[in-house]
Amino acid sequence: AAGVIQSPRHLIKEKRETATLKCYPIPRHDTVYWYQQGPGQDPQFLISFYEKMQSDKGSIPDRFSAQQFSDYHSELNMSSLELGDSALYFCASSPWAGVPNNSPLHFGNGTRLTVT
Amino acid sequence: GEDVEQSLFLSVREGDSSVINCTYTDSSSTYLYWYKQEPGAGLQLLTYIFSNMDMKQDQRLTVLLNKKDKHLSLRIADTQTGDSAIYFCAERLTNQAGTALIFGKGTTLSVSS
Question: Hey, is the C-beta of B49 within 8 angstroms of any chain A C-beta?
Answer without folding.
Answer: no
